[in-house]
Amino acid sequence: MQKIFLPKVDGVTVTLAHLLRHLHAQGVQAMLLGPSGGMTEYAGCRILGAFGIPFKAYPGLQINFISPYFIQQLREFKPDVIHLVDPIWLGVQALVVARLYFPDVPLVTSHDTNLPTYATIFGFPYSRRRCWQISSYLHSFAKITLVPSPSTAKLLRERGYLNLRVCDRGVNSESFSPVLRNFAARERWGIKSTDVAILSVGRLSLEKNLCLLVESFSLFSPKTKERAVLIFVGDGPWAPSLQQLCSTKNVRAVFLGQLSGPALGEAFASADIMSSPSFTETFGQVTLEAMASGLPVVGLYAEGTADLVTHFRNGLLLDVHHPAGPWNPHLALDPKASVACYDSCTDLMRPSSSFFGSIAARYAALLEVLIVDSMLRNNMAAAAFSSAQEYPWERCMGRMLGAYIDLSQSRPTPGQPVSSKPGFLQFFIDALVVGFAILVTAVLHLLYMVPTFDDVFT
Question: Where are the membrane-spanning stretches (predicted)?
Fold first, then answer.
């Protein structure tokens, strides 16, 4: 059960598409429940679209609902393993159905989205601590919870999650490669031969921390400003505000919009540096794709990014936890530095924070190191490309399939659904279960707003 799928493209949907192709190649049958997107089949997998209504707080997402028809189809499918991807809304409904109808079928969950982070960013009145408590409880029903990076696994372990297994992602070396560099594309973007193009790829939304990137650009020395060009690939609700911010800050920026396929690979390879200022990632798919395209990365020493980028080897990382201490851009990272996550640095990263200017200046200094030093930039580009070769999709998919096999073999007998009733009676029962599942999900989202003891007394 998946909260999103193609045609929407992000790290989760890309991973799921590769998984379905891998399962099909291995002769494994699969069925997918997700938001209705017009697709009924993908790589031999039947897709059941769930009815949904637009989620106005985050354009592009929906609030989806399970149906009696899905329960009927799941009963006929007779799954050996049920995988819930990010049980937040639709996944919670599916969890209720799975426990009522398939109590002996093992569950796998995935954690790819830090709900407390997004709830805070978009102004939901949720308690972060309560969100973590409820999320860990929901994942506790799973025999295995898959996480995309070691840093995310550590974060979840500290918050009480159990049965964690790291299953990272991969990159297609044909779709993302330095050989796709296109100088004609750079000319179309208005980039001169002496310019350095800094790339940002992803949804243009608040959680990507793009205000830090723009602020850093505005702090460049006049000489660096003449050479630096900021390239945005992607679209999102913050696009108009971002364009206005770049204009106000006098930042030279090019907006290419949403790209896919060969055009996306060309955009990656035709830039010079990848910027990754986000501290809300659980992996960083576009960061890996940039590295495979031969780009060094300048990012934060934060969840997801810290697992891919090694400071002064294939990129540069900024530790944001001590913004007032002594620092210079050529310092090694403190070996005792802790990986940043939203919970630990949200107050520091707000533009209104007294430390935001210092953090932006340091991030600008790291970018300038690579803009000015072409030899270092080229050496790190080669190292980034080499590092990305360690992430073939086949390895990732093998680990995920391995989790399914481990669980299916751990049961003494194949799972059987709760026995069904005659026609109309079964539909009526299924409809009641659907209503109950939606009610449980809604109640949980109300509970997210209940403060914890620590919220009240600290």
Answer: 427-448
Tell me how many domains the chain contains: 2
| The domain boundary residue, chosen from 336, 362, 391 | 391
One-letter-per-residue 3-state SS of 86-125:
CCCCHHHHHHHHHHHHCCCCCEEEECCCCHHHHHHHCCCC
Split at pLDDT 50, 70, 90, the class of 404 is: very high
The strand order across the sheet containing 107-110 reads 82-85, 107-110, 144-147, 164-166
Instruction: Determine if the pTM surpasses 0.90.
Output: yes
The verdict on 43 and 81 lying in the same domain is yes
Lookup: tokens for 110: 């995935």
Enclosing domain of residue 373: 178-391
pLDDT (tens digit per residue) in 342-357: 777 777 778 888 899 9
Per-residue pLDDT at 420? 62
pLDDT band at 77 (very low <50, low <70, confident <90, very high): very high
CA gap 223, 182 in Å, rounded: 26
- Burial-class residue 358 by CB neighbours within 10 Å (0-12, 13-18, 19+): middle
